[in-house]
Amino acid sequence: MADYIYTMEIRLTPDQLKGVNLVQDVARAAGITLYLTGGAIRDIISGFTIRDLDFTVQGNPLKLQKDFERAGAQIAGHEEDVRTLFLVLPGNVRAEVGMARSEHYEKVGKPPVVAPASIQEDLRRRDFTVNAMALSLNEGSRGLLLDPFNGVADIEAKVLRVLHNYSFVEDPSRLIRATRFSARFHWPLEERTQQRYDSAKENKYIEHISRSAIGHEIAQLAHEDDPLSVVRALEKEEFLKVLQPHWTTAKVDTTGLSQLMKTRQQIVDLGYTVDPSAAVMHFLTAHLSDKDVSDLRRQIPRKDLVEAWRDIEDHAKDLAKRLMGKEAAIPSRTWNLLSSARPEMILFLAVTARQQAVAQKIKNFFTKWRDVQKRIPLPEMTELLITPQLPDYPKIARDVFMLLLDGKLRSRTETLKFLKPFAPPPPPPPPLPRRGRGPKAAATAPTPVAEATGKPVKGKGKKAAAAAAAPVIAVIAKAKPEPSGKPKAKPAKAAGKPAKPARKLASAKHPPKKATAKKAAKKKSPSKKAKKH
Ligand code: CTP
User: Fold this and answer.
1) Is any ligand 1 atom within 6 A of the Cβ of residue 52?
2) Distances (CA, A) of 123 to 42, 95, 527
3) Does 122 contact ligand 1 (Cβ within 6 A)?
């Protein structure tokens, strides 16, 4: 039997996995049954990108708002009628927590009568078999996959199949969803599903789509990996105008959009998490009138997306202005400014910046300046005992990087000169072997062995022991720096008896004066040297 928890754990990003745990903890504390459902399960099993997390609880998630906030989630909106909570989990993970519900359609074109239900009933009200699965996250059944319509088989067959003959009649937004999923996954509709789809289209059932479904489908476009191909498919099926009567592919800034998606991939490849949804909406609607754009925004249920889309241009302008000002006068400052900016803003500005200087700075940030990091002499720093275990290490590493960025450390020698004052004193030698009195003790005393080389050291006196210990210190220093970064003076008690501290211990008590990064930089500043010449 497939281990779906294992599959989930390896397929989700670390932030998504933390998100699952967060929601699970909140649900458990509230004593509510929780399932991971819908697209998340489909994508975990099929191997496609997992765009968001859909959870279903047997209970009312709207009552858990405070608990989610306390656990670190942001509330990005809710839908009262279907009791769904929209969340942004730490790490920018989008999630929805909905109440398990049944939907009963009394009249064509009218919204369903919604009632709380079991998870099994909830799966029955869904659109396609591949979306009608639930993974239990509950103690006792965690990892159990509920798949009453053979969704796994349809994922393997790569087809989209509705659950029953009235699917498109009951919820015409499924016509749009079928087109969208088919364009995204390149999965065709199963034969009978295709027949139902054609007949629903012919009978213009789409005219009965609800306003909230329109809003939901507009927002979904923002998260597509290839939004243009989905928009083209919707236009071909005459569904794009259902979302907004004036929307066509001619209203899309196709150049901007493809540039955005290309740049986004480059940024992702560098290890950033970047949510391009607001920028995608900007380009998808670039040539629509302000009024049409406002109409679109009003219908979207997730207010976080609406706000980000509305503010994106202004925020990008602000960032551009700062990048042109004093705050970004030198590379290190520009680096700091861009490091603290939201990746979404940098992405948008990278594609839209009109000023050459701004575009160049962003380009440097992602390329040239990143390579400067490779010039930090890490092996030599380890030799100097400047390792991540030092409390000051982040600051030292950062300072050296900043100075390298600004061209203030121009060679390896200059860099090492700058670093040396930060080296902590070496750890003390190991305690000397106990010496007894008289010839017997001397005869039984072990021959000191140089641990680094494993070779015996000539002689048996104090000097020989010290000679044996010396290389060991170097080896330890290279291999395992002390966790605190400070040399640990072995307490006399632990070493056996004599309280006489070795001379090296004494020097460990009085480490050389700590140099501050600024002072050291000033001292070594090549610019001053240059002036002298
Ligand atoms: N759903 C449905 N009918 C709809 C909308 C949603 O049955 N008209 C169900 C499906 O089970 C779907 C889930 O609700 O999987 C979540 O909806 P949504 O987030 O819109 O779709 P996803 O399947 O998650 O797809 P995406 O990858 O686009 O987020």
Assistant:
1) yes
2) 13, 18, 70
3) no
Helix (H, G, I), strand (E, B) or coil at 142: coil
Instruction: List the structure tokens of 510.
Output: 């009085």
Written as six digits, the tokens of 57 are 């609880």
Tell me the chain's radius of gyration from C-alpha atoms: 32
User: What is the model's pTM?
Assistant: 0.77
For residue 126, give the ligand 1 atom closest to its CA.
Answer: 7
C-alpha distances in Å from residue 517, one per residue of 47, 54, 468, 527 = 48, 49, 36, 16
Report which secondary-structure segment, H or E, holds 97: strand 93-99
What residues does CATH 3.30.460.10 cover in the chain? 1-157
Residue 494: pLDDT over 50: no
Q: Given this model, what pLDDT does residue 161 score?
A: 98
E strand or H helix at 35:
strand 33-37
The SS3 assignment for 405 reads: helix
Contact 222, 236 (CB under 8 A): no
Q: Whose CA is nearest to atom 21 of ligand 1?
A: 39
- Residue 234 pLDDT exceeds 60: yes
Nearest to 319 by CA among 295, 299, 342: 342
Query: Which class is domain 1-157?
Result: alpha beta
- The helix (run of H) or strand (run of E) holding residue 449 is strand 449-450
Mean of the per-residue pLDDT values of the chain: 85
Identify which of 371, 368, 408 has the alpha carbon closest to the alpha carbon of residue 517. 408
Specify the amino acid at residue 331.
P
Number of alpha helices (DSSP H) and beta strands (DSSP E) in the chain:
28, 11
